[in-house]
Design a protein that fits this description.
Among the domains are: 33 residues, no CATH class; 193 residues, Galactose-binding domain-like (Jelly Rolls). 9% of the residues lie in helices and 30% in strands. The strands form 13 sheets. Strands 22, 24, 27, 29, 32, 33, 34 and 36 form an 8-stranded antiparallel sheet that branches. A hairpin with a 5-residue loop joins strand 14 and strand 15. The longest helix is centred in the first third of the chain and has 25 residues.
């Protein structure tokens, strides 16, 4: 045995003797003092001498005999079980106490192998991670909602509006509302909990939650102190600064349909879709296109300006040189005093600069020229710009007659497209009817904006002003509730069954529009022009099924 084991054995032996001696003293079972001293001396004599033992014990080598017997009993078990939040067997070979009570009356607690687990009982609600017992007025801070796990386990059930929740209190939107606080300082109108009452007859006006009598006792017109209108003066009188009507005025309405009458009133109002000119005439509402142009047509039958002598209007600007404007024109004036060409004898030059269709020959005018469809599937007798085509269908939309329909869609953003057709009728009064529907990606998101896509149908005849058959813009076709200027020509909108590259769009249903026109004595020729335009980059689309004259085929 090594010196290290010998030393340890001696130390253990002495410790055991001391422990026994101490235990005997503590139990009152020791011998007399003399005997104890003798025993101690005897032990000291018999104890081995360790003075020569090595002071630095050697480590235990492999194969040495381990400690046993009384030395083993001196070992201490140092494993401390970690039982917090646990139950059942632990890492020290013992068992954690099964104490899983979380002190929550809404849960039942159990040991899930070695971990405590909890479940909400059927008599409680589990709302936002918190548990509430079933019953009314829970939580106590809100008597307008309650918990019933049999109906909704994870949400509150609110009492109906008007249910009492306390003295002078009632439930509104799931909260208890105090009537005193709701109508504090209010005589009328709506409070936080509902109506605060009505005004009496002697003060019937509720303004800013206060009842007021009218301040119009001596006033004929204008407004009272609260902004309430006291009345209007007749169209031939003026409202003076004293809110009295002054009748010493003569209306200036001779030859005027609309506009001011010179006396504070109006000579009349224009119908929807028309606007009043400066000279008091109602004309079709049209958006002029003169941005950056010094000359040329304004798109509404007028002019953007005239060029000085010896200058020519070229693309809206005045120039000293003139480039013949014969693009898409086969005949007629080239804009520089020359001609774009001559038509065969049997065909006439249309106003659009093409050799017209057979319908333009009044001498051989066939009956089908009174009702124009697109049954042939082409624009062979039309003048058209890029973007005009004939289609059989568009998505699920099909032509009502003829199996085909005219489609006008601008080729790119901020451009337009048009198609013209020349026809002939006897001189006199006539009507034109057209069947159309209009689509735009500006509906409904861009109602009330500057992106006013639109279309128009005009009729031109020699020696007569253009006749506006129909025109409309996005705002005019938008629902009235979308913007203050919307809805002047609202006919309904429906979500389309097709999409453009910009996504889904809205469109009108099929609509019929008509207008009256007069042909002067002469050859009876006239031109129908259909145009559509885009403002921005979301391109619109116009479909035309047919048009006719004097009720033919409509």
């Amino acid at each position: 045995m090594s010196s290290w084991n010998i030393g340890l054995t001696a130390v253990a032996f002495l410790a055991l003797i001391a422990a026994c001696s101490t235990r005997n003293e503590g139990n009152g079972k020791g011998s007399p003092d003399g005997a104890a001293d003798a025993d101690a001396a005897k032990n000291a004599e018999t104890a081995p001498d360790l003075s020569d033992a090595t002071t630095s014990p050697e480590p235990v080598e492999a194969g040495d005999t381990p400690l046993s017997g009384e030395a083993d009993s001196a070992r201490v078990n140092t494993c401390i079980p970690q039982c917090e939040g646990k139950c059942g067997p632990n890492e020290c070979g013992t068992t954690c106490p099964n104490d899983c009570d979380d002190n929550d009356p809404c849960t039942y607690d159990f040991c899930n192998y070695i971990f405590c687990d909890y479940a909400v009982t059927d008599s409680c609600c589990d709302i936002d991670g918190l548990h509430y017992p079933a019953g009314w007025g829970t939580p106590p801070s809100n008597p307008c909602r309650y918990c019933d796990p049999a109906i909704f386990r994870h949400m509150w059930i609110e009492l109906p509006d008007g249910a009492e929740c306390g003295p002078n209190q009632e439930c509104v939107d799931g909260e208890c509302c105090d009537w005193h606080d709701s109508c504090a300082g209010r005589e009328c109108g709506e409070g936080l909990c509902g109506s605060c009452g009505n005004c009496p007859i002697e003060a019937p006006l509720c303004i800013e939650f206060k009842c007021h009598a009218s301040a119009c006792d001596q006033r004929q017109c204008g407004s009272d102190d609260w902004g309430v209108t006291c009345g209007w003066c007749p169209g031939w009188s003026l409202c003076t600064e004293g809110d009295l009507c002054l009748t010493a005025c003569t209306q200036a309405c001779a030859g005027r349909e609309c506009g001011p009458d010179g006396c504070g009133g109006f000579c009349g109002e224009c119908e929807t879709g028309y606007e009043c000119t400066d000279d008091g005439k109602c004309v079709d509402k049209c958006i002029k296109s003169c941005s950056g142009n010094a000359c040329g047509q304004d798109g509404c039958g007028g002019s953007c300006g005239q060029c000085p002598a010896r200058q020519y209007c070229q693309a809206g600007l005045c120039s000293n040189t003139c480039a013949p404007g014969c693009i898409l024109r086969l005949c007629g004036d080239d804009g520089c005093g020359g001609s774009c060409g001559e038509c065969p004898d049997e065909l006439a030059c249309t106003i659009g600069g093409t050799c017209g269709s057979f319908c333009a020959q009044c001498s051989v005018h066939p009956l089908y020229c009174d009702r124009i469809t697109f049954a042939e599937g082409s624009l062979a007798q039309w003048t058209a710009t890029p973007g005009a085509t004939v289609v059989e269908h568009l998505g699920s939309y099909e032509a009502e007659t003829g199996g085909h329909m005219l489609q006008l869609r601008p080729p790119s953003g901020d451009t337009g497209v048009l198609a013209e057709f020349q026809d002939c009728l006897p001189p006199g009064n006539h009507t034109i009817d057209i069947r159309w529907r209009f689509f735009s990606a500006e509906f409904k998101e861009w109602c009330g904006s500057n992106y006013q896509d639109g279309f128009r149908v005009w009729l031109f005849s020699r020696g007569q002003d253009p006749v506006a058959v129909y025109s409309a813009t996005v705002d005019e076709l938008c629902p009235p509730e979308e913007c203050p200027e919307c809805g002047m020509k609202f006919v309904g909108l429906e979500f389309s069954t097709f999409v453009f590259d910009a996504g889904g769009i809205w469109g009108t249903p099929w609509v019929s529009s008509s207008a009256a026109f007069t042909l002067p004595p002469g050859d009876g020729q006239f031109t129908v022009q259909i145009a559509a335009w885009d403002v921005g980059s979301l391109l619109p689309l116009l479909l035309v099924d047919r048009f006719g004259f004097d009720g033919a085929g409509m």
